[in-house]
């Protein structure tokens, strides 16, 4: 399917691995020109090379900047003053008992997961409204709707992202700008095995056993009973970034394998 993204400039945060890299690859395949910020030059270069090797026709520009910090956001806004698509994907997660969550933990997750994306939206949303064109996508999580008891601080940040996305969408009334959120479920990524070990009854079990126990014990509502592949999330994000999604605005679209047990 042609998503008509040729010539569009898309900024994707957290795009050196996992969901973010899959999103960047898919947008490049659809013809979008990419801006990839990151803190590690080697990882940025590897991501850009991988995207090129995947056959994308879009150009790739990397910017050495921490998109989750105030300084990094300011640098991005100076270096790249206008984008057509903003994908706020950068995020961190961890399992931690509620009693053990420190003030520093709360601030660290909020700074990266909530404030980081809000800063970039503040930088690019006004320009989109002025041009009457643009797409913003927040990569949230099913945890924002079904908060896991061992990741309460993470879940709260993901609920906050949904609030920001919906409230911004309300400001687009009568324009061609859209703001949406995507809710992935547990997704296969670079650090997922370490996470599964952190919540497993037997951390030394084989990865397949870790995954099976995780869904049996921690995500029993999942209808697919497996990790989601990053490219499955990327397909939804690419659609939302495209002109084909013009009538989808202010929505929280679920790509979580059926964990959320509601019909809407």
Descriptive keywords:
8 helices; globular; 7 strands; NAD(P)-bd_dom_sf; seven-stranded parallel sheet; Rossmann fold; alpha/beta; 264 residues; 2 domains
Strand order of the largest sheet: 3-2-1-4-5-6-7
Indicate the percent of residues in helices.
Answer: 40-55%
CATH topology of the largest domain: the name is Rossmann fold
* Counted beta strands: 7
Architecture (CATH level 2) name of the largest domain: 3-Layer(aba) Sandwich
Give the amount of beta strand, in percent.
5-15%
Distance between the termini: 27 Å
Radius of gyration: 18 Å
Integer count of domains: 2
Number of helices, counting only DSSP H or I runs of 4 residues or more: 8
Poorly predicted ranges: none
Structural category:
alpha/beta
Shape: globular
CATH superfamily of the largest domain: NAD(P)-binding Rossmann-like Domain
- Helix-strand topology string: EHEHEHEHEHEHHHE
User: What's the CATH C level of the largest domain?
Assistant: Alpha Beta
Average pLDDT: 96
Largest sheet: 7 strands, parallel
Write up this protein.
The chain has 264 residues and is of the alpha/beta class. It has two domains: 9-187 and 229-253, Rossmann fold; 190-227, no CATH class. The protein contains eight helices and seven strands. The protein is globular, with a radius of gyration of 18 Å. 43% of the residues are buried.
Outline:
Residues 8-187 form the Ketoreductase domain. The chain has 2 domains: 9-187 and 229-253, Rossmann fold, CATH 3.40.50.720; 190-227, no CATH class.
């Amino acid at each position: 399917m042609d998503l008509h993204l040729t010539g569009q400039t898309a900024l994707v945060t957290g795009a050196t691995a996992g969901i973010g890299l899959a999103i960047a690859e898919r947008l490049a395949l659809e013809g979008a020109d990419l801006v990839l910020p990151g803190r590690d030059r080697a990882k940025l270069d590897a991501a850009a090379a991988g995207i090129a090797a995947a056959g994308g026709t879009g150009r790739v520009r990397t910017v050495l900047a921490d998109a989750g910090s105030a300084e990094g956001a300011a640098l991005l806004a100076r270096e790249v003053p206008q984008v057509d698509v903003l994908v706020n994907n950068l995020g961190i997660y961890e399992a931690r008992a509620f009693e053990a969550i420190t003030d520093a933990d709360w601030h660290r997750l909020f700074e990266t997961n909530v404030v980081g994306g809000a800063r970039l939206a503040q930088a690019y949303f006004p320009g989109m409204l002025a041009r009457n064109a643009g797409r913003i996508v927040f990569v949230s999580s099913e945890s924002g709707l079904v908060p896991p008891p061992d990741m309460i601080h993470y879940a709260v940040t993901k609920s906050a992202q949904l609030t920001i996305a919906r409230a911004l969408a309300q400001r687009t009334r009568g324009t061609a700008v859209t703001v949406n959120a995507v809710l992935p479920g547990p997704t296969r990524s670079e650090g997922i095995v370490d996470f599964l070990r952190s919540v497993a009854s037997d951390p030394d079990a084989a990865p397949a056993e870790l995954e099976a126990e995780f869904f049996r014990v921690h995500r029993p509502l999942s209808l697919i009973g497996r990790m989601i592949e990053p490219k499955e999330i990327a397909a939804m994000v690419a659609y939302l970034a495209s002109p084909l999604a013009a009538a989808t605005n202010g929505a929280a679209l679920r790509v979580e394998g059926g964990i959320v047990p509601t019909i809407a």
